[in-house]
TrEMBL record:
Keyword Isomerase belongs to the record: no
GO molecular-function terms, A-Z: DNA binding
NADP keyword on record: no
Domain Helix-hairpin-helix DNA-binding motif class: 38-57, 68-87
Name of this chain's protein: ComEA family DNA-binding protein
Signal peptide per UniProt: 1-24
Record-linked SMART domains: HhH1
Length: 91
């Protein structure tokens, strides 16, 4: 591969990579005390059934006091909370 084409490939790769990161960073925070099923399901590792479990837990136990309290929901582990920590809000 010629040095110029290799350099162009690297520039393209990093442009795509940084564009993807910028899009992920722009996603709005999800307030776990008010979000609906569709919004909760947008979190990584949370499908519709886990989203409904979050709502059911919230209705039975009141609002979440902290982001970490989300791990108390059956089917939601600490790892899921960690993966989504930058997108979860408690207001």
């Amino acid at each position: 591969m010629k040095p110029a084409s290799f350099l162009a490939t690297l520039v393209l790769f990093f442009s795509l990579l940084t564009g993807t990161i910028a899009v992920a960073a722009e996603q709005p925070a999800v307030n776990i005390n008010t979000a609906d099923v569709a919004t909760l399901a947008s979190l990584s590792g949370v499908g519709e059934s886990k989203a409904q479990a979050i709502i059911d837990y919230r209705e039975a136990n009141g609002p979440f006091a902290s982001v970490e309290a989300l791990a108390n929901v059956k089917g939601i582990g600490a790892r899921t909370v960690e993966k989504n920590a930058d997108r979860i809000a408690v207001k």
